[in-house]
């Protein structure tokens, strides 16, 4: 009887000690993140002591949720999908755990722009799941029919000319599709790069907002003009996923957005125009500085997590070279997450499958967050000035410019309101009186 009791107790103790830790991963509803969830069983099989639960959100909602949770130490998530904007700010505040992947991870294989942007004082605080810049994607068949050849780095004037010539709404083709949905990482990511290349900046060296300057008026004026005349209906509500769906259906002639889109629009299983698309660098105008953005959807661990070791292991797996090979094996090299590792761009199978590879890497390598504006600026960052206040500012300004796009107010009125919003937040934060 005693032996049976001891044996039963031992089994209960073993069950308790082998119970899997559950980590909660907050992520965005983009294609590569959905793909990651499909492969998580491979990680769980190799790590039977860990179970992974995903909370998948639209990107603006994700940004709000993770920001609130980490600032209040809510502890809802063990892994957060964040980017080059949040990582250094949150790392400096002690809100993120330092990542310490093992030697097999090959941290030196990470692209320098990504590793640098996700580090602080030489310590990695989030790891890139996929990285991106922005570039121009366009229907080469339509451009050829219109007799237009775009250079490798066109101007926005050349883009407007092509959009006008291929705009054919009667046959379901709109000249250009651009983000219009308000958000600091949505419409403002694109519009800021436009303002940069038109010679503008968010703040001068005294931190005074410059949103009513000529470069901003020229850039936003062109943006609104393009979408009102050559864009699809409802552009003020469109983000990445909405435009991706339109482009894959053959309804967009031109799209300037994240380089990561290239892998989706080049995939015949999901794109009706695969094989008809050409790629160029993001458009410039007055200066090439800051014409294309730099971003990574990366994975970080909030300092309040109770499952740091399990979260470290998951991130090391999801951002590894082995994970990229896993996706290649199951879905093909044209579908792997890109923009993170040097080895991906040295792989002949990837280069053969990805017609966009050269343009993508050129775009990433050309970015410089430390010199992204023609006038000297006090901030680092290209599409997102690296100050904590920018989230509130970017959301407020994004709403004003989306309203201008929807025809609810003029460009001048939107920029005047944007200047006031930005000035108020900067005064509140103590940048000046």
Integer average pLDDT = 93
User: Could you give the order of the helices and strands?
Assistant: HEHEHEHHEEEHHHHHEHEEHHHHHHH
Radius of gyration using CA atoms only: 23 Å
Largest sheet: 7 strands, mixed
Briefly note the CATH topology name of the domain at 15-131 and 294-353: D-Maltodextrin-Binding Protein, domain 2
Unreliable residue stretches: 1-17
Q: So, CATH architecture of the domain at 15-131 and 294-353? A: 3-Layer(aba) Sandwich
Structural class: alpha+beta
Helix content, binned percent: 40-55%
Report the CATH superfamily of the domain at 15-131 and 294-353. Answer: Periplasmic binding protein-like II
Number of helices: 18
Amino- and carboxy-terminal Cα gap: 80 Å
Globally, the shape reads globular
CATH class of the domain at 15-131 and 294-353: Alpha Beta
Beta-strand content:
5-15%
Would you report the number of β strands? 9
Your description of this structure?
The protein is α+β, with helices and mostly antiparallel strands and 433 residues long. Helices cover 45% and strands 12% of the residues. It has a domain at 15-131 and 294-353: 3-Layer(aba) Sandwich (D-Maltodextrin-Binding Protein, domain 2), CATH 3.40.190. The protein has helices at 2-17, 31-46, 59-71, 86-92, 112-117, 140-146, 156-166, 187-197, 214-230, 240-248, 261-265, 308-318, 321-331, 342-346, 348-353, 357-366, 390-405, 411-428, and strands at 21-28, 50-57, 79-82, 119-120, 123-124, 127-139, 254-258, 277-281, 294-300. The strands form two sheets. Strands 1, 2, 3, 6, 7, 8 and 9 form a seven-stranded mixed sheet that branches. The chain has a two-stranded antiparallel ribbon with strand order 4-5. A hairpin with a 2-residue loop joins strand 4 (119-120) and strand 5 (123-124).
């Amino acid at each position: 009887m005693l032996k049976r009791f001891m044996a039963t107790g031992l089994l209960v103790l073993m069950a308790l000690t082998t119970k899997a830790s559950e980590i909660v991963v907050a992520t965005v509803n983009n294609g590569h993140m959905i793909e990651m969830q499909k492969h998580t069983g491979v990680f769980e099989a190799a790590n039977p002591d860990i179970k992974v639960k995903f909370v998948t959100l639209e990107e603006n909602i994700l940004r709000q949720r993770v920001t609130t949770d980490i600032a209040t130490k809510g502890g809802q998530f063990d892994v957060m999908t964040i980017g080059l904007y949040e990582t250094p700010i949150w790392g400096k505040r002690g809100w993120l755990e330092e990542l310490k992947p093992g030697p097999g991870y090959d941290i030196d294989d990470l692209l320098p722009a990504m590793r640098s942007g996700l580090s602080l004082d030489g310590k990695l605080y989030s790891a890139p799941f996929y990285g991106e810049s922005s570039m121009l994607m366009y229907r080469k068949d339509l451009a050829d029919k219109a007799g237009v050849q775009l250079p490798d780095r066109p101007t926005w004037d050349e883009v407007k000319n092509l959009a006008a010539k291929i705009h054919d709404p009667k046959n379901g083709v709109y000249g250009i599709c651009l983000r219009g949905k308000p958000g600091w990482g949505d419409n403002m990511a694109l519009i800021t790069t436009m303002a940069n290349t038109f010679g503008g900046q968010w703040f001068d060296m005294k931190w005074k907002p410059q949103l009513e300057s000529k470069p901003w008026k020229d850039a936003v004026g062109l943006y609104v003009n393009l979408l009102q005349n050559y864009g699809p209906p409802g552009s003020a509500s469109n983000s990445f996923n909405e435009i991706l769906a339109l482009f894959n259906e053959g309804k967009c002639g031109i799209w300037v957005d994240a380089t990561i889109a290239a892998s989706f629009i080049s995939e015949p299983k999901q794109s009706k125009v695969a094989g008809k698309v050409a790629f160029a660098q993001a458009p410039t105008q007055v200066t090439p500085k800051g014409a294309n953005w730099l971003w990574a959807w990366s994975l970080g661990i909030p300092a309040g997590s109770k499952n740091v070791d399990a979260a470290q292991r998951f991130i090391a797996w999801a951002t590894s070279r082995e994970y990229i090979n896993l996706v290649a094996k199951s879905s093909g090299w044209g579908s792997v997450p890109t923009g993170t590792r040097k080895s991906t761009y040295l792989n002949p199978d990837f280069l053969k499958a990805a017609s966009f590879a050269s343009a993508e890497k050129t775009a990433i390598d050309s970015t410089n967050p430390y010199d992204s504006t023609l006038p000297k600026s006090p901030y680092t960052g290209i599409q997102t000035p690296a100050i904590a206040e920018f989230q509130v500012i970017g959301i407020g300004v994004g709403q004003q410019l989306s309203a201008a796009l929807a025809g609810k107010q003029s460009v001048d009125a939107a920029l005047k309101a944007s200047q006031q919003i930005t000035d108020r937040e900067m005064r509140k934060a103590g940048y000046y009186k």
